């Protein structure tokens, strides 16, 4: 199609601008983020998210879904760029780049816009620092039918390339909210909601614990876990077996094991 | 102590040799791997693994466990090196290095040396490519009381810095075996063992499925899942709810959700 713009140089300013979206400061200033891969972009499209910029590798194979995507981007007035795979690799920071990437506007992540009645389960991450863990929590949330992921305090950026990649498209299907504890806690108590966390304090076994919807399943920071007062603010504290030397699970794993148990128990 | 060797230069050959342990080729040639952090090295020590080389940051705080570790390394004839934190950072590839790192001899990972009667649960990863996922599976294995992790076909290296880090010490507590499917499958059938995988083929719900010990919980490659013939070779295929758009979980998450269910069901 004639509307595709060809970019051949690494030093092209558009390449530089796209590359900078790997950097949080630039993402926040621009209000945009990058997502790669036809599957992910198709998920996005089916959830109503059309990229503002579509970047195609010259080496891509033709695909009907890609043609549909390109047509929709063009129809929405978006920009379509065609470039060499090594330039696409430089943009996404991935050695073996996908054949397509898109630039999306970041979503509204205010707690006020979250409708808690939209789902029975919500995941809550407190100071989760690893973008891969955040993305994996989004992916798990999608699988268990959660409404979304609420990020409390100083979490990694859910719109980082790493988080988007690990989410496997769930960044587009899950509602994402960001808030401090001092915003989240009063919001939670302003309506129905059971706050649940894994804990060693006055806790009951996680299997067959009395989960109720909407259930907010909270996991804490990778190194420090949850602050004590956050745990004490929970309606339900549960323990998972720890048969070995370790006293904790990976944050995304804990969210998943607990999330699947809540799904079975509701 | 006078036996500590001071290293002050980035170009020191010992620094170079230690740094090269981040590279798989060098690890395999040397038969050694790196692990960082006092907690991890203490776990190792309590499991009977003393580092051959102990690297201490000059900026470390004194700690009784560190003193004990240092004494044991010295008693075992190991080498003790003291160096600046930025050199330690260069060795481990981590921006904020731990105050201590150790070099360990790699373990025997032959299937023949694995005693299946030592535990009721074993995790099996097939072509798991992400070292973080491997390390997380080791960590989960420790938590559910698994005997260890069996790596089938072309997996990431469990002795990579990333896998060791993600294992949170479980690399020292879990037995690790590496084998091809053509080695693993006859070995499995040469004794008691139920092979279980998540699957969409002729599968039953994962909750309350008839798990029996020793139960081998297998997950497949991050992109492709398990080959069809591997799934068909399973004694039990189970499904986990997938309420959203995604049709799979992160490999380490799938292993954990299934592993915890097996633990509850045995």
Reading the helices and strands of chain A in chain order gives EHHEHEHEHEEHEHHEHEEEHEH
Q: End-to-end distance of chain A, in Å?
A: 51 Å
Number of domain modules of chain A: 2
Named at the architecture level, the CATH assignment of the largest domain in chain A is: 3-Layer(aba) Sandwich
How does the helix and strand content of chain A classify structurally?
A: alpha/beta
Tell me which protein chains meet in the greatest interface and how many residues each side has.
A-B, 35 and 35 residues
- Strand sequence of the main sheet of chain A, in spatial order? 8-7-6-11-9-12-10
CA-based gyration radius of chain A:
20 Å
CATH topology of the largest domain in chain A: Alpha/beta knot
What fraction of the residues of chain A are assigned to beta strands by DSSP? 15-25%
The main sheet of chain A comes to:
7 strands, parallel
Oligomer: homodimer
Task: Give the overall shape of chain A, derived from the CA principal axes.
Answer: elongated
Provide a count of the helices of chain A: 11
| Helix coverage percent of chain A | 25-40%
Tell me the CATH superfamily of the largest domain in chain A.
SPOUT methyltransferase, trefoil knot domain
Low-pLDDT segments of chain A: none
For the record, what CATH class of the largest domain in chain A applies?
Alpha Beta
Average pLDDT figure of chain A: 94
Protein name (chains A, B): RNA methyltransferase
Domain RNA 2-O ribose methyltransferase substrate binding (chains A, B): 34-110
Keywords (chains A, B): Methyltransferase, Transferase
Organism (chains A, B): Qipengyuania marisflavi
